Amino acid sequence: MSKKEMKKRIVVKVGTSTLTHKTGKTNIARMAKLASVLSDLKNAGNEVVLVSSGAIAVGSVKLGFKSKPTTTQGLQASAAVGQCELMFLYDKLFSEYSVVVSQLLFSADTLENPQETGHLIDTFNQLLEYDALPIINENDSVYVEELLNGDNDCLSAKVATLIGADLLILLTDTDGLYNDNPSKNPDATLISRVDEINDEIFAIAGDAGEKGTGGFATKIKAAKIATDKGIPVVVMNGEKPTDLYKVLDGQSIGTYFSAKGE
To answer: Whole-model pTM?
Structure first.
């Protein structure tokens, strides 16, 4: 992606592993840096939408659980508490840069209903017109199916297609897609560009991580959804949010999935 192809409407998805420490507690420094970078991207004239995981992990810690709950009711309660905490932190951090944030919680069913989808598009467009930054998550406290089986990777891809985004960026805890599992094979190499998402690409995708509900397989599915609709996708390590600048400057960061027909 060259610099002349710099994108305007950007959807950024951040995973639980990026937002939390290994202790399970919130990585405040990283959240603060992410807020700083996204605010600066907005100041540069871009429209930014953030899809954020992490509610269950954050809520579990705040409720005093030693590990992620195993019951549906425990997960629902953690999501409810954690979503409040996440939005409190996002509002506080983004307000440092005079950025107004908004919260949108919905389910995959919403995106299957034409009338509800129309209302959702209107909301997105109005928020972006008001220069607000929408923050999205699945409504985990209400929609149990998504709580157990959903993932924000595919949700972010569907949001990107819904609002006609120019670029989808998935922030995760790996540098991108490798040709083998880098934690098991030290000789595994990073795949910097994927022009066709086929069975081979799906086959080398990793399993779900410890703290999130998605793994690399869901990122491939998300990339497929977006690229089929003409939206390129970058999967990159969220450890250094400032690398987002490099992506928009056309540098090769992580794995770039080219849009269909690109």
So the answer is: 0.91
